[in-house]
Amino acid sequence: MGNCLVLSKEDKVLRVLKTDGKVLEFRAPTLVKDILSNFSGVGIGLSKQASEQLSPDCKLKLGKVYYMTPLPGSAENDSAATRRIKMVITKQQLQELLTKKISLQEVLSDSKIWKPKLRSIPEEIE
Known about the structure:
By secondary structure, the chain is of the alpha+beta class. Helix content is about 15%, strand content about 15%.
């Protein structure tokens, strides 16, 4: 049983690794702006840790691997960006929210921290 030799034309493809791990492949040299026209909040760099993004007019070369990285000031990285949360509310609170009688902030401020209703059982000293 022997060795395996794979001949491929990998240098005929340029690859761009997206932030989610998926790979975009192009068979012709492509401009950065052509790729980024379909994405927002990201730039293209030469490495994952690239602090400097390639300019939009930069031509990407075949046989190279490039990385999409989030832009420093993008809304996706901003702490004020929209967040999705899960919460448990009563049917009455839901109805009030849906009819706009109360705001979400009021529901969140009404939520109480759970405390046990039973008294503590003291330990006996033997």
